[in-house]
Amino acid sequence: MAFSSSPHHLGNPSTNFTKGKMTIPSKDLDIVWGGDDRYWTIPNDMNSAAHLHQVSWLEVTASVRGTNPSKNYDVGFRVSVTPDAFGWSNYPVYIMVKRGKEGKFAWKKFFLNTNETNKPFEITGRLIKAEKPLEDSSDDQRVYFGLYEVWSGKWKGGLKIHHAFITESP
Q1: Quick one: which H or E segment has residue 71?
Q2: Is the Cβ–Cβ distance between 20 and 167 less than 8 Å?
């Protein structure tokens, strides 16, 4: 078992948005229980997927600085399920996204199709432009988002996260 001072994997917190579609490698994501190889395998390189073995608490997050509060953004994850995936059939995953630490989450629910194995697909959510600037305008330029299934308390596994992404949208 890999030793870490934290049971969680901490990714790269200094990601700055670039124009177009920006991808965030799975190794740069924050993954709850990702520091324990009984639960996750986190890649060392930029092109490999993080592999969920088993957890009862799925929380994979990222944040991006330098976004424009007057623009809309699509965020999401490119994922796939393995042939031995379990625990997903009755419980949805959620993509949640917000602007700034104090912003309110927008969310979207997805059910993973465990019959389509080893075929990567994207699940997305949308952040609508800020109706009014946040009080701390520097925080207004940071987008926080994540992939969650924390409510069922059921064990689940067999998910691969290839990368996260954020795209400026119309």
Answers
A1: none
A2: yes
Residue 129 pLDDT: 80
H helix runs in 74-166, sequence order: none
In a domain, 14, yes or no: no
Q: How far apart are CA 66 and CA 15, in angstroms?
A: 9
Given the structure tokens 């990567």, which residue do they identify?
120
Q: How many domains does the chain have?
A: 1
- Is 8 domain-assigned? no
- How far is the CA of 152 from the CAs of 57, 89, 98, 114, 148, in angstroms? 9, 12, 23, 18, 11
Q: Let me know if residue 94 belongs to a domain.
A: yes
Using CA atoms, how far apart are residues 57 and 23, in angstroms rounded to an integer?
Answer: 24
Q: Which residues of the chain have pLDDT under 50?
A: 1-3
d(CA 63, CA 57) in angstroms, rounded, equals 20
* Predicted local distance difference test score (pLDDT) of residue 1: 46
- Neighbouring residues of 96: CB distance < 8 A, sequence distance ≥ 6: 105, 106, 107, 125, 145, 146, 148
* pLDDT at residue 133 in the model: 59
What is residue 57's predicted lDDT score, i.e. its pLDDT?
96
Structural domain harbouring 52? 21-169
34, 9 in Cβ contact below 8 A?
A: yes
pLDDT computed for residue 15 by the predictor: 85
Residue 169, token pair as written in the block: 């949208």
